Amino acid sequence: MSQSVAALLKLREVILSGSLPPGERLSENGVAERLGASRTPVRAALARLAEEGLLEPIPSGGFMVKAFTEREIRDAIEVRGTLEGLAARFAAERGASPEGLAHLRDILEGIDAVLVRDPAAGIDFTEYVTLNEHFHQLLLELAESPVLARKVGQAVALPFASPSGFVMAQGALPEARVILTVAQEQHRSVVEAISLREGARAEAIMREHARLAHRNLALALRQGKLHLVQGGALIQRRLPA
Amino acid sequence: MSQSVAALLKLREVILSGSLPPGERLSENGVAERLGASRTPVRAALARLAEEGLLEPIPSGGFMVKAFTEREIRDAIEVRGTLEGLAARFAAERGASPEGLAHLRDILEGIDAVLVRDPAAGIDFTEYVTLNEHFHQLLLELAESPVLARKVGQAVALPFASPSGFVMAQGALPEARVILTVAQEQHRSVVEAISLREGARAEAIMREHARLAHRNLALALRQGKLHLVQGGALIQRRLPA
Amino acid sequence: MSQSVAALLKLREVILSGSLPPGERLSENGVAERLGASRTPVRAALARLAEEGLLEPIPSGGFMVKAFTEREIRDAIEVRGTLEGLAARFAAERGASPEGLAHLRDILEGIDAVLVRDPAAGIDFTEYVTLNEHFHQLLLELAESPVLARKVGQAVALPFASPSGFVMAQGALPEARVILTVAQEQHRSVVEAISLREGARAEAIMREHARLAHRNLALALRQGKLHLVQGGALIQRRLPA
Amino acid sequence: MSQSVAALLKLREVILSGSLPPGERLSENGVAERLGASRTPVRAALARLAEEGLLEPIPSGGFMVKAFTEREIRDAIEVRGTLEGLAARFAAERGASPEGLAHLRDILEGIDAVLVRDPAAGIDFTEYVTLNEHFHQLLLELAESPVLARKVGQAVALPFASPSGFVMAQGALPEARVILTVAQEQHRSVVEAISLREGARAEAIMREHARLAHRNLALALRQGKLHLVQGGALIQRRLPA
């Protein structure tokens, strides 16, 4: 791993963990010192994180850790859902291969197995997240569009916009089982729509699927579970009036 | 033609021509006398026109000629566009035959020929309307859905909701050529979308295509050309404030 | 109730119950005798049921009880979902009143109560159907479009296309609870979308909501439960190859 | 302007102009020499252009000038149209201010003026492009979504995906006037849809609007006018069979 990549990964983690609070100004020197890295890779990492949206450029020079409002996060989720919707539509219109569809159905069975296990034992969220990420990744591959894949990749760089962004927070909530059941139904319906070449339907389902995250966000905000969300420390709670 | 069908056609024409003004109460006896028909086929015709929406049942019994507000006509056009949109989507998703697509392209060429003729000579609107109705009819056939075909048939029973409902009024307007050019572009795009199996796109285009009629309606209202529209006598002009 | 209405209701019931099998030819005289009615109201009833789609006109005259293929039923459900989707979009775009939204939320709570009761006791499907029909009816009213309301009314005249068409068949199935949970989530999401004036979302949800019936239809077909569906006797089972 | 920005702009221009052909491998040293810049800003520029999609990373290290297939360009246009569609929907749903709408209508009048001028004199494409870019920019502002604005910005970084990407090529074509007339109709319709808060319609129009570029691309490819398109040198012509 190059020095640049190492610096980028470390800096991103520091920001998402909340160690650098929203609004904090970052200088090349300060970050270089904190990470024990030299200035050139730090400069590149700062530029990249500004590109991703985690940092904001300051007019006077330098960067500031971004604070995200609830509305910005909803918008980021909507953008991700819109792009994943486009991917599902492409997959349906272009005609997914039988192998690709079989692979998606295998993942569905895996998620079914996670959900129907002994309720007393609870849901294995780590396994769920792994299967869920795999499902979303495979769907993107079926779209056969490197241009779109790049855009979805940029859209999920903000961790709270990613398909599994709020699942761990959800884990602590009593509504978790209902939400995961609904999510799995949407997975199942989008696979059906793709196999029937119903692109409009596939697109609409993926958009609505992303919006489950809105609800999880609202629950996490209400119940003070933001620390369970990656990047949750950057989310601005509204001040009491 | 049976007596019932004859009575229905005559009564519908009388109403659409404006000879029976909106709000007029119709009794079986009165209509039978007017049409020179017996009461049984008249009763069936009244029931059928109420079903189509041209007559309104009166609580005390009997029927009244319906007056349509601008909003009701816009809604009728939107319903027709929505159903034609569904037909275009079905055609795209189910895969139209090469023959069907070739037939649609022939009609497109015919309309092109109508539009590019000597501008000084003007547009032959009768020929345009014939080709346009044929285009819409063929699109519906490509959907391969008798259930939907029946619904579209019911939706265009109101003449101002039909695909050619306002073309004759448009004929008298200077904007006519631009509107027909745009309409033809939409025809061309929907054929392309169907042949590429892009159902969401095909659906959206047909919806927008129907909305050209909104604009024609507004122009016809503004310029006092409603007498050129079949059924225009039933449209309620808003009173000056 | 007039003789005509009485004859219509009785004949519709006889057909939906399966007492007159698909393909059966109906003559005015035969039906009049069977119902103990005179010929004029019977003629009107036959015409009306042909309009609704339960009867097919025979080229040589008279009518035949319609047989419905699985594809025709899917299309009828899609048409209904498309029109209900339009209603939800109108409600969102035109701005539903706070009272209307509060009323919808009351129904949601009622359905929640039906679903969370003691699982051992089972679900009260009759209560569910009453609340569900009320929800769909109210949504239609919020669209404020008499033209559209008429079209939805025509679309649900085929009983297997109606929002509750397959619920009773579902009642006998183990998947029932999951399907009703997903349906209720869709109810909840459409109310949210309307209150946020998100018309595209509201429309897409209602379309997908209707498609739950596809699944119920497939389950009912597979498990031989068609007799639990109103009009199920008219559905053509595919012959074994 | 910092050294980094200067290096980025220069390198981007060199690539889009076609001076570095698709497939060309770029080393930091080689580029630094060519631009007369030092290695640090060159490294940042290379990373950024890879991010934008103009360069591809080579597994063995370094970058290669990307060649774009027709399909990739169509996908890039579709992504841009999808994101602009989302912006138009947000503007409609969130309620654009009267001032914002008035501003959009002013631009429409400006474009009308460009289009109706003396046909013999031809269309002033430079003025058209300026007004068109302004229209698209303002629409984005009405969406009130910095998150989305960033994504659209990334999507139009590929010049052939931008709203005016093919207008100059179009300028040389006889079809230009029809295409611009249709484009202007779409501009007008999206403004109407936003002002009526019809989000689904606004979204669909902007998607279709973007697809006009597909047609221009096909025309430019067919007529060998790619040199008139910024970045046209990167587009892979299909080889004759």
TrEMBL record, chains A, B, C, D:
UniProt xrefs under InterPro entries: GntR_C, TF_FadR/GntR_C, Tscrpt_reg_HTH_GntR, WH-like_DNA-bd_sf, WH_DNA-bd_sf
Alphabetically ordered keywords of this record: DNA-binding, Transcription, Transcription regulation
HTH gntR-type domain location: 1-68
SUPFAM superfamilies: GntR ligand-binding domain-like, Winged helix' DNA-binding domain
Gene Ontology molecular functions: DNA binding; DNA-binding transcription factor activity
Keyword DNA repair (UniProt): no
Name used for this protein in its record: GntR family transcriptional regulator
Organism: Roseomonas mucosa
